[in-house]
UniProtKB/TrEMBL annotation:
Descriptive protein name: Alpha/beta hydrolase
Keyword Hydrolase: yes
Family that this chain belongs to: Belongs to the AB hydrolase superfamily.
AB hydrolase-1 domain span: 19-257
GO MF annotation terms: hydrolase activity
InterPro entries, sorted: AB_hydrolase_1, AB_hydrolase_fold
Top-level taxon in the UniProt lineage: Bacteria
């Protein structure tokens, strides 16, 4: 199937170098609306929806393919190949940070660098040496809630993710986006996200990476960013003033400034 139609790909901008924005769990390309236009003057901006999100082609959803992050990474690879991108920059929010890393490992000649916004290589704690922020019981409880009570889990997760009480519209938008997902797709993507372990995928990955980390991020706490910085050999870790897990939505100006500073240096 045509990846452009399948993933509702939208292209704008006047630059020669492509910058591809990959949205996080339960979101879609609309979540980049406060950030992506700032790059249109200097880049060819590529936005898309993962299958099962936004305006993607739901008929293209394959439960087996999308049972792991590798399936989502394949779509990023297919997109880059269909557009014949070279020297492209991948910008991934949350789980898409690892999805983009997996894609870049598959097509290193097409990717120049990565920007990872609130990334995590593993969300589960793995005692005694690794802290991801969640116990298995936390994740199993969330997965159970997705199966039984869609409004309940959407409201709960939106509150955990947003962490900006002075911006109530942010949590409301996230909750509506989570609720819009088909429950079986939402649960399968949650399993692929929160049960993944991408720590070994960091080994020998040498593309330049900017790691943007927020204050008070319950999903990807400070120790997670430090772990990634230590294990990605060519990374820059930038602590943001922004709070929560979605700085591109809550603090777009800071997000844009840090990205532009990194990409121009």
């Amino acid at each position: 199937m045509d990846i452009i139609k399948k993933c509702n790909v939208k292209i704008s901008g006047s630059g020669s170098q492509a910058i591809v924005f990959a949205h996080g769990y339960g979101c879609d390309q609309e979540m980049w609306r406060k950030v992506s236009p700032a790059f249109e003057k200097d880049f060819n901006v590529v936005l898309f929806d993962y299958v099962g999100a936004g305006m993607s082609d739901l008929d293209a959803y394959d439960p087996e393919l999308y049972s792991s992050l590798a399936g989502y990474a394949k779509d990023v690879v297919d997109l880059c190949e269909a557009l014949d991108l070279h020297d492209a920059i991948l910008v991934g929010h949350s789980v898409s940070s690892m999805i983009c890393l997996l894609a870049a490992r598959d097509i290193p000649d097409r990717i120049s660098k990565l920007v990872m916004i609130c990334p995590s290589a593993r969300y589960l704690n793995d005692a005694p040496d690794y802290v991801g922020g969640f116990e298995r019981a936390d994740i199993e409880g969330l997965l159970d809630m997705i199966s039984r009570n869609q409004p309940g889990w959407a409201s709960y997760l939106a509150g955990v993710v947003a962490k900006n009480p002075d911006q109530p519209a942010l949590a409301q938008e996230l909750e509506a986006s989570f609720c819009a997902m088909d429950p079986p797709i939402a649960k399968r993507f949650a399993e692929a996200t929160f049960l993944a372990d991408n720590r070994l995928d960091l080994v020998d990955f040498d593309k330049p990476c900017l790691l943007l980390q927020c204050q008070e991020d319950s999903v990807a706490p400070l120790v997670v960013g430090e772990y990634l910085h230590q294990h990605l050999q060519n990374s820059v870790l930038q602590q943001m003033k922004a709070t929560g897990h979605c700085p591109h939505m809550s603090h777009p100006e800071e997000t844009i400034a840090l990205m532009k500073n990194y990409l121009s240096s």
